[in-house]
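Recall the central idea of this unit: under ordinary conditions, the amino acid sequence of a chain determines the structure it adopts. In this exercise we apply that idea directly, starting from the sequence alone.
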Amino acid sequence: MIRTRLALVAVAAALALVIAAAAQASTPPLVGTVGPGFTITLTKLGKKVTKLTPGTYTIKVSDKSSIHNFHLTGPGLKKTTSVSATGAEIFCPVNRK
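Accordingly, the structure predicted from this sequence is:
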């Protein structure tokens, strides 16, 4: 009886992890672009992001400017690219609460 309950709890926990992973995988990544020049953008599926619902996101940043950086802050969150460097970086996962 106890083994049956433990097995059911283990199966339920495994199923919950699979569902959570699938939900995160189905969220398209956000794309941050810095530069060239003085432009900084954040897009999702090619559209400008002005508001995000709570959730977990992956952000792919393409930093094309050596004069400023991509800086993302919020409660419990501080992610940034280097000001003087250029290149690509992935912020993963980022939780917006």
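DSSP finds one helix and seven strands in the chain.
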